[in-house]
Amino acid sequence: MAVYFDHRVEAPDTNGVALLISWHSSLCVLAVGSVNASTGGCVDLYLQQGEHVELCHVERGFSPSLLLWHPTKPLLAVGWETGETMLLSHPSGELIPLPNNTHASCITVLEWSNNGSRLVTGDQAGVMAVWRVDARGKLQGSPLIKHDYSKPLTCCIFRPPPPAEDVATLARAAVSGDESALDMFNWKKSNKGAAFALGSQEALTFFISTADGSVYSVDEQARSVPLVSVESAVLTMWYSKRRDVLAVVTDSLLLSQFSLGPEGIAQEISKVKLSGRGVQHADIVWTESGLLITASGEQHIRLWDVELDDHYALSLDESLGFEKGELLNCVSFCTSKQVLAAGTSKGRVALWHMVTVSDQKGDTKIHWKLQTPAEVEGNISQLKWGSSSHLLAVCSSSCVVILSEHVMCSHYSQQMAAVQLTPTQLSLANFNTNTHTTFSTDTHIRAVQVTKEMVVVWNGKYITVYEPSGQTLHSTGSFQCESPALVVHEENIYTVEPNRVQIRTPQGTVKQLLAFSEAEGNPTLLSVCGSYLAVGTDTCHVRVFDLTRREAKAIGVTKNLSELIPDLGALRSVKCNASGSQLSILIAQVNGRPDNKVYFYDIELDTLSHFDFFTGRPESSLAQSEDSQRTQCEGELAARCPVSQFWDENEPRMFVCETVPVNSDLLCSSQSQTEKEDVLVVTFFVTQEHGVLLQDSQPKPATLLSLLALDTPYYYYICKLLFRRGGLFLPDLGEGGDQGVSTPATAPQVPSSPQMVVRRALRDFVGLESCEKQTRDAMLNFSFYLTIGDMDEAFKAIKLIKSEAVWENMARMCVKSRRLDVARVCLGNMGNARAARALREAEKEPEVEAQVAVLATQLGMLEDAERLYKSCGRFDLLNKFYQAAGQWQQAVETAETHDRIHLRTTYYSYAKHLEAMGDKNLALVYFEKSDTHRFEVPRMLMEDNLSLEIYINKMKDKDLYKWWGHYLESQSDMEAALHYYDLAQDYLSQVRVYCYLGNIQKASEIANETGNRAASYHVARQYEGQDEISQSVHFYTRAQAYNNAIRLCKENNLDEQLMNLALLSNPEDMMDTAMYYEEKGTHMDRAVMLYHKAGHVSKALELAFATEQFGALQLIAEDLNENSDPALLARCSDFFIKHAQYQKAVELLVAAKKYHEALQLCLDQSLTITEDLAESLTVPKDSSHLSEAGRRELLEKIADCCMRQGNYHLATKKYTQAGNKIKAMRALLKSGDTEKIVFFAGVSRQKEIYVMAANYLQSLDWRNDPEIMKNIISFYTKGRALDLLAGFYEACAEVEIDDFQNYEKAYGALTEACKCLTKAKADSKLLMLTHRLNLVKRFIQARRMHEEDPVEAVRVCESLLDEKDLDPAVRVGDVYGFLVEHYCNHGNFQQAWSKIEDLRSTRPNINLSLYVSQTSLEALQNAAGVRLLYRDTDTHAAEDEEEVEEDENITH
């Protein structure tokens, strides 16, 4: 536990009331701004103990408004209410003022960038300036940015920089061969010459807010852009780098969150009104994780988690020393310690430690644990955590105090214990006299040592010695000493200095020096046990000295542990045992983390061993017996780390240490490591012969703080203390405390001498705390031999002990050690036959813990039994245990949560217990929960009929109504019984009573109305007894007792009703009735139907054929399937063929596996083959009724039939199943389904099918569908039909020429055709195609060269016209049209007209407008003076061009 030393700052006398405080982020320097009404304001700097830095004092005639330290340099920015701003340097006190013309009103904004190269200042008038500060902390001239917002500025934050490149990761990637990572180290390759960031980048974009609720974004180019706007003045802002979210809090405590896009656009995502009293009282703090903490002068601190959208409040606890109505004014959060500090109106500093807890599902929750408060004077207005996490600056109405956290001092020796209460108070306990006193010193206590004769206190600079004088202590000496280590033995005080240990008298005189060499290092750790001194140095050397003589004498040699322990960083603790033969060492590793091992150095043998708490096992387990109990005990220690250690004051074999989980945050926390609840106290035996032996482990009592010492037969623990209004108030000392201490409920007065140390007996000595030394030694030997598994020696150690109490205590030890074999011997010596029998019967349980729990129960160790049952998960036995112990509430809770299979049984047992105790009202409740109230409650209340009737009427339970009706009926109260039978809806009982009363008519009405089968049956029996057959049959039918109804109908010849009853009844009754009809020879159709319904189809068909009932045959045939008799199926099919029921006949033939006959019948009778019929005709591949060849033949016949019927898709399917894909494709081509044709061709992968599909696709409009053209080319290519593909390319060329005059594409198509013919080796076709290709190429060249050499182009065209076979390759009209266009463009209209005449003579019916542009024709008409007349004529199909042309007549 920690206490806080208070250091009041040494402020000059002229300073007034402190207004502002600010810690440097890395230096222990505090800036304080204060104001004096007469002299003005000032700013001073102080060190961690309040020392004033004389050179750093600034005075002005006005008040300071803001203080802000540079993030890394000792440079303080100070803003004043007049607008003056300056930089104060520590420790020189140099002042660097900002230009006076920058701000003219109170400074309201000061903010450094993350690296400190920029400083933002803002004032009440709305003027904002950005200043550059160089690496030396010097201001660089005029401001970089200056902007006037015309509104008071309220808040400013810098946007965090993007994450920098991880150089180590890049280096590893580059070494492994990652070229991109390697390039990033080369500025010539990475990012076009820009070097990547090797460190944290400077963020120069910031957000600044104004009093009207506007927030602006300012970038490094001095651009100020409005970002968001809220309803009122902005009080504080926070930026989430993970989510790119800006959170804004206004003075009305309205929290708004805005998502920032990459282009700087903000979008509001939430708006919440926070609870509080408003801006004039609110102190708001943001944590790095996005936790908003507000204190607004209320009795609560309110927290809002922006990331999780969760909120809650923290309040004070009066039991911890706070007063009722105490208000919380200010807050400060320490990130490194995860501690929240709050200042109150009564001068107390409340501290909450944040603990993150994970549940079984892996979800994490935050818990806040309120710590003991510190106290200062006055009303606290400000709190600030320092750069060192143990420093807290408190600004109150009267002073500024620096609180320095210090771990509470304590020491135990020779039955004397001292525990620090406050910075200047000690609690002293003398267990020899059982007295407790409180002692105050004049200085702060940093270390304390006690012996029987004196108390030694060290304050960091001086050692003061106190000796008892009556009931008090008085100082006998004081001397200066700055030793970091201090121990006391008898009349000697041991201190350290470089390379030496000093042995001093109580007056400080050095009477002996224990020297260490330079290699051995400086002594830093001292420890005394018995008469031996253990010393540890800063170079990890250890040594033990014998103090029994006049002068201390070294034992053995100085041992360098670095040679024995790998990764040894430093020594944390060094202790020796009472005989000086063993050293125990706790170390820190090189990385600074505590090691999870405790090391034992044997001085005589010069050997080192250890116990590894990470695995929960010693270095070697050869010396210790292996059993299940020991293994389980070691398992409980796994993944733990030792934090403190102690040797027994008198027994050299006994060693104890405290351990915490490895993942505990206390391992790296400045708080006491043993404050955590999950602390195990582990005891060992350590000897030369057997090494390290685990003896016991038990959790530290929750009401106690930490272990102080081990002195057999006791552990000595420090109690938790709580401050209360300047005094002390202790919690309950817990079970087994030495003396009672007042609690809040009994005595609100603070005890004058609080008991801070309590004793708890070791496991082996419970009940034997006051035994004599002989018994104590025997018990220690017994425990030791029991630990090593030597049962013979264990019993030898205690064989002379005759005390029954000792044997009982050893039996209790067996519960802890789980040694049931030893327990049997102990129970025998105790003469406890009942416990011995219970233990023998418990051996049938599979869990050892359950067997031990039975032993614990017999010995009265109920808490241990409860814990054991819980540890092994036997909640059923725990439930029985609670019941046997009379703890019924725990039993019920256990059953409800863990033992639900016995829940109703537990309720029932509890109800029986309550009944026996006379609490019938509560017993009723648990009888109901156990669902046994319908029987148990009437039994319990049988003697109180009135209460029972009231209960039954209240419950409205049908079963209870029925039971009560039976009871009333037994009492001959028929009317009341009928009433309750009616409420219970027990119609049988009503009918029975009415029949008993002779009112059979009423009974019949009830049976008819309700339809109750039992009631109807009872009425039917009554009517049968009275020979009313029709009524009896009616009610038998309603009761569904059809066999009785059928029996009556047969006996009374009621054949008409018999048929309906038989159909309603079971197959046996149907058969019986059918045989009845058949024997009588009448109603044979009914007999056939009943045989059919009863499932005897063959009998039904036989009878139907014999009596020629064709209608019945049809009904029977509908139920026939492939599982029916084939002969029966064939017979039925013949019957249907004779009666022209061909479809049904086909189905029956298929069911009879006569597929060919069925198909032939379809062909003969022209039956349409549907898909279902085709599937039924299809024989499975693995069928034994038809061979594979026969199966394929059948499938082809089915497909042929489908083709004839026009069902091409089904035919395709069957051809495919038969393996004839060619026929399947032909069938599919007839269907005209293009999509399926393309798909089938793709999956078939046969040349013939590819060609067939391509031929089909050519018949479609492939000219306007590129997908079809693509498939044609693909199929011809896959089918290797190159000649056909060449023909297709020729057709494509003709389309390009005729439709689009695109000779270039036509040339490409003809080229592809040539390639195909070349591969196909069709020489004759290739020769003709090559000639056509040459003509097209010449025409294309002529058109291309026209602009550069028109004469040559005309010559080429003229030569083309001379070609005899030009037209198939190049249209004549295109050539003439080209020439006409040429002559018209050159004004040679006479020549152009001549070419038109030549064209008309060659092609009389040609349409000139298809080849010559309208513009050229009009120009020709105007130039020649010839008027052209156009009129429509009949259209003719041109055989060579395959197009429709329009006649054109030209008249002069």
What Rg is obtained from the alpha carbons, in whole angstroms? 54 Å
Uncertain parts: 187-200, 625-629, 665-674, 738-751, 1428-1452
How would you describe the shape? extended
**Strand elements, count:** 65
End-to-end separation in angstroms reads 125 Å
Q: Report the sheet with the most strands, covering strand number, pairing sense and barrel closure.
A: 5 strands, antiparallel
Mean pLDDT across every amino acid position: 80
Helix content: 25-40%
Number of helices: 45
As a percent range, the share of strand residues is: 25-35%
Please describe what this structure looks like:
The chain is of the alpha+beta class. It contains 45 helices and 65 strands. Strands 26, 27, 28, 29 and 30 form a five-stranded antiparallel sheet that branches. A five-stranded antiparallel sheet has the order 50-51-52-53-54. Strands 1-33-32-31 form a four-stranded antiparallel sheet, with no helix packed on it. A hairpin with a 5-residue loop joins β44 (500-504) and β45. α13 packs antiparallel against α14 (920-929). It is extended. The protein starts with a strand and ends in a 7-residue tail after the last strand. The relative contact order is 0.02.
In short:
This protein has 1452 residues and is α+β, with helices and mostly antiparallel strands.
What distinguishing features does this structure have?
1452 residues, five-stranded antiparallel beta sheet, 45 helices, 65 strands, disordered C terminus
